[in-house]
């Protein structure tokens, strides 16, 4: 179904670009802004159509709010609208985050800049826990029909794997999905085939040999293809690649990258642009963003018309009933390596303060990270030891 009054591509560029500029706060903000635009203000979609769009995008790997922006643009203006609207949603945040990456990662920034980065990075582990906790109630309610014991075990598996397995986390997500699919099909009396989509590490080694840009593209592709449940799911894998495998950045710089992804508008997955910038400058940052978001465009442009059938497929639904809670657990578990990356005692105090702001005072993520950055700046000016 197309809108009664199809908007021009100029309108799509303006409206989706506006959301890309003011969309601070991650997926909840993006969903609210898209709903206000498409359902309430312009009436391009009904409430039910918008809810269906959210559900369809949550079935796909990759950044869900970005896919929602592309999908809603597709619904109101077809493939051309999807390309224009998706780009307008992504580009403002990309420009801002690359400018900040240049400030934080180039040369020897002044102490106050390093302090701001160290303070903001210290808060990231609390933000990860906050993101995961926010997903638990809805998942727990859905688990009433699929088995809450298994749901809890899937969450636990995600926590442990994010804390310990690094790049092999995705195998646990897929494994939990395969287990739930097997249980579901057994209940229906069907035979079940194994689900395997193993990301061979040898691929990464081969790609690494082809040069830094190929390595950046490989890391970004994994980010775009494997981030079920939100950007934090892919943090352990991205951290392992950027810090341990390719040595593009230190653990502290990676924390800065995640913090920048939280305080800039647009999708949180823009963090990968900072990783690309650290590896190969501006060209690497742009390449990483292009590759990371390419799967989302491909899914929508070529698969959107099949979304209703996908949502109704019991096998797809069963797989996600296993992979989904594991992804929630992975978001929670990502806080462990992030916290272990801190090197100064005062950063743990900032982390505790961020937890108070988020969970006790119920401040927003952007406010919390900016407050942590301000604390880091003040402490740097006071002469505390900064991470190397």
From TrEMBL:
The keyword Cytoplasm does not apply. It is found in: Cell membrane. Keywords: Cell membrane, Membrane, Transmembrane, Transmembrane helix. It is a multi-pass membrane protein. Its main location: membrane. The chain crosses the membrane at residues 80-105, 117-139, 151-174, 254-280, 286-304, 316-339, 368-386. One of its GO terms (molecular function) is chromate transmembrane transporter activity. Pfam families: Chromate_transp (PF02417). The keyword Membrane applies. Coiled coil: none annotated. InterPro entries: Chr_Tranpt_l_chain, CHR_Transporter, Chromate_transpt. GO terms for cellular component: plasma membrane. Belongs to the chromate ion transporter (CHR) (TC 2.A.51) family. This is Chromate transporter. It comes from Amycolatopsis japonica.
């Amino acid at each position: 179904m197309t809108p009664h009054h199809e908007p021009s591509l100029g309108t799509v560029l303006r409206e989706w670009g506006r959301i890309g500029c003011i969309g601070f706060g991650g997926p909840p903000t993006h969903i609210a802004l898209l709903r206000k635009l498409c359902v309430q203000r312009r009436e391009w979609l009904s409430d039910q159509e918008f809810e269906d769009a959210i559900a369809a995008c949550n079935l796909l790997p990759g950044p869900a709010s970005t896919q929602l922006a592309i999908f809603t643009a597709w619904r109101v203006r077809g493939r051309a609208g999807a390309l224009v609207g998706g780009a307008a949603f992504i580009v403002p945040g990309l420009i801002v985050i690359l400018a900040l990456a240049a400030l934080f990662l180039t040369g020897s920034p002044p102490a106050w800049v390093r302090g701001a980065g160290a303070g903001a990075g210290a808060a990231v582990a609390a933000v990860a826990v906050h993101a995961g906790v926010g997903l638990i109630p809805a998942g727990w309610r859905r688990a009433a029909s699929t088995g809450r014991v298994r749901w809890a075990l899937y969450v636990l598996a995600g926590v442990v794997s994010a804390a310990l397995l690094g790049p092999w986390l995705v195998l646990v997500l897929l494994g939990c999905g395969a287990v739930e699919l097997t249980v579901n099909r057994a209940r229906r009396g069907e035979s079940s085939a194994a689900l395997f989509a193993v990301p061979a590490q040898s691929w990464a080694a081969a790609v690494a040999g082809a040069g830094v840009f190929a390595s950046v593209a490989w890391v970004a592709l994994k980010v775009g293809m494997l981030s079920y449940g939100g950007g934090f799911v892919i943090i352990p894998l991205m951290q392992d690649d950027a810090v341990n495998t390719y040595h593009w950045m230190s653990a502290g710089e990676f924390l800065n990258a995640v913090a920048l992804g939280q305080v800039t508008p647009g999708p949180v997955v823009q963090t990968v642009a900072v990783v690309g910038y650290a590896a190969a400058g501006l060209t690497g940052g742009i390449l990483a963003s292009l590759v990371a978001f390419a799967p989302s465009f491909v899914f929508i442009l070529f698969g959107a018309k099949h979304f209703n059938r996908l949502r109704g497929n019991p096998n797809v639904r069963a797989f996600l009933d296993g992979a989904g809670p594991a992804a929630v657990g992975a978001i929670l578990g990502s806080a462990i390596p992030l916290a272990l990356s801190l090197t100064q005692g005062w950063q743990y105090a900032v982390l505790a303060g961020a937890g108070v702001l988020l969970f006790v005072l119920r401040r927003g993520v952007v406010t919390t990270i900016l407050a942590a950055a301000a604390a880091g700046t003040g402490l740097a000016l006071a002469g505390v030891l900064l991470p190397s």
